[in-house]
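Regression report. Comparing outputs from two consecutive submissions.

Submission 1:
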Amino acid sequence: MTHSFPIRVYYEDTDMGGIVYYANYLKYIERARSDWVRSLGIDQLAMKADDGLVFAVRRAECDYLGPARLDEELEVQTRIESVTGARLMMEQIVLRGADRLFCAHVTIVCINDAGQPARLPANIRLLLH
């Protein structure tokens, strides 16, 4: 299952060289993950209110492969690599057409209100398999 999320590069996304500032790719993939979770029917506000759980990024390994520039249309593709009882590993790629500009391998975990690790809820694990 691959989720696709469109992004347009705005002036505020660029650096003095006119290309997307490196940290903004992390914002792009975060937006794409949030949209993907929403598309699965997972209500993160209810998850926090009812279960005291939130998703958190545990690890992100990123490769910057090419520059994106002002007003370009990009696409973030999100794909699950694996799911365990406590972790969700995914690959996220930022594309401009067929060109790969950025690739990240991201590990997501759940944490409770005290900031301690928690198992992914069973209903969510079922959605991801």
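Submission 2:
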Amino acid sequence: MNTSEVVYKGELRTTAIHLKSGQQIVTDAPTDNNGKGEAFSPTDLLATSLGCCMLTVMGIVAKRHTINMDGTKVEVLKVMGDNPRRVSEVHIEMYFPKNNYSEKERNLLEHTALACPVAKSLHPDIKQKTRFHY
């Protein structure tokens, strides 16, 4: 079964449908690339996927080790490059709730985040800068 279906709606907008659940994501070209910027751009989704993936795999490991990381927040900054136009950097700022994590728990969570499937799938030319705040 396919993962998704994407339909071009015109005026630089798409709708992506997750086929298993029916959930939808709308994308719009950014204002600096002829778009309206009224939704995530495809490159926004690429950068945001890194933060989502980090939180997801950390959640899996946290559950396995009974570490409470509920409320952990990621702020994502996407940096675009030129020639060719592409994502050149993704900055991740990860904020954990005040749970007095041990050094072992911190190391486990950080290692897990940095080894997430999206991080390992991005081209090595895309700089990934991640900071963890406890």
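Expected: both submissions complete independently.
Actual: both completed, but the second showed a warning that disappeared on reload.
Relevant detail on submission 2: The radius of gyration is 17 Å.
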